[in-house]
Amino acid sequence: MIIRSNRLLSVLCALLVMVGLSVSVEAAAQTCTTNDCHADFKWSFVHEPVEEDCLSCHEQTAEQHPREGGSFQMLEQGSELCYQCHEPMGRKLTLHSPVQEGLCVDCHNPHGSNAGKNLLPVDYDLTMLCNQCHESSYLENAVVHGPAASGACTQCHDPHESNEEFLLKEPVQMICVSCHEDIVEGMKTASVIHAALKSQVVLLAMIP
Ligand code: HEC
Ligand code: HEC
Ligand code: HEC
Ligand code: HEC
Ligand code: HEC
Ligand code: HEC
What we know:
Elements: H1 6-17, H2 25-32, E1 45-46, H3 48-52, E2 58-60, E3 72-74, H4 78-83, E4 94-95, H5 97-100, H6 104-107, E5 112-113, H7 127-131, H8 146-149, E6 161-162, H9 172-179, H10 181-189, H11 195-198, H12 201-204
Antiparallel strand pairs: 1-5, 2-3, 4-6
Bound molecules: heme C (HEC) (6 copies).
């Protein structure tokens, strides 16, 4: 969900008012990415604001560019930069530590990516991404659960925040039966249900 900040809105409005000056936001981005400068800004998926206006995140602090010591600073630091347009996180019980620390760019390329819409350097297999900080030693076990082996970590975990333990997207039983529907199907018709399963209130609630 996108909530554009007032500041961004006013910048956009100002641009609309200044149509006479014929400065389109697209042109602004184009002057930064020429054959000579930032030519490596080419991805199959470009983050929308990058396509539109580099200055929605970077603020020019000196006339001359490039120059030693730099001539740009970030408009906001860490996650605050992203929260200008994206819904702020931190309203659920657990916030993933790197999100709390504002390290969005540890997992997201702020400019773009070839991998997918979510701007990660990876596509489906998130193992490498998560292993920057986690040791998934279970991957060396003789048998590894299908979705974990293929790096589909976000089938079960929310990478940002959650109301469940271990950043799980839903109560654990719900997650398991989202793929193993046969368990619930079996419980619907079974004449005897294993006592251990009877304590799983979440599961029983799914049986009419
Ligand atoms: C959505 C916000 C956002 C937009 C829009 C954006 N940038 Fe950035 N840019 C960042 C962030 C955040 C960093 C710091 C990345 C880091 O710390 O790893 C950065 C870093 C950079 C850097 C230095 C490091 C690098 O990746 O080379 C350059 C150069 C740069 N941006 C150029 C641009 C240009 C040119 C545009 C427009 C075509 C642009 N940026 C648009 C967020 C943005
Ligand atoms: C100036 C506004 C703006 C800023 C700042 C901004 N974004 Fe975005 N972002 C957008 C828009 C617009 C889209 C495209 C619409 C959408 O996909 O929801 C988008 C899309 C994304 C997507 C893909 C969403 C999807 O569902 O495919 C990710 C991931 C993302 N942004 C992360 C970030 C991160 C991380 C930062 C901070 C480094 C950031 N954004 C800063 C405006 C912004
Ligand atoms: C630990 C890695 C990690 C960090 C840190 C992280 N993200 Fe993400 N983000 C992901 C992954 C993975 C996805 C794709 C979600 C999926 O596959 O369901 C994602 C998806 C997104 C999306 C797309 C919509 C959605 O929720 O699925 C947005 C927007 C986004 N992230 C913004 C941010 C912002 C803003 C921050 C910093 C406050 C941040 N992310 C920090 C890993 C991360
Ligand atoms: C930039 C570092 C970093 C990255 C990348 C990262 N994590 Fe984490 N994660 C942490 C830290 C720090 C903690 C808190 C310490 C701990 O419990 O190990 C944590 C905790 C967790 C927890 C336990 C939460 C709890 O409540 O006990 C889960 C689950 C988790 N991360 C999953 C992931 C997944 C899935 C990915 C990849 C999408 C990922 N992490 C990527 C740093 C990271
Ligand atoms: C099938 C669902 C599922 C998948 C897929 C999955 N996890 Fe988990 N993960 C869990 C559950 C459930 C727990 C809680 C385990 C417990 O109760 O001891 C957990 C716990 C964790 C923890 C915290 C406990 C610990 O061992 O340090 C981390 C970190 C973690 N997972 C990372 C990952 C990463 C990284 C991936 C992808 C390579 C991944 N998980 C894939 C379900 C899953
Ligand atoms: C994203 C889909 C998905 C989710 C979610 C999921 N599984 Fe699985 N599970 C699989 C797949 C695919 C296999 C078969 C491949 C394999 O054996 O690794 C499997 C196999 C299994 C097996 C071995 C069954 C056999 O017949 O060999 C068990 C046990 C299992 N899962 C338990 C769980 C539990 C417990 C959870 C919840 C924490 C869970 N699964 C969540 C996809 C999933």
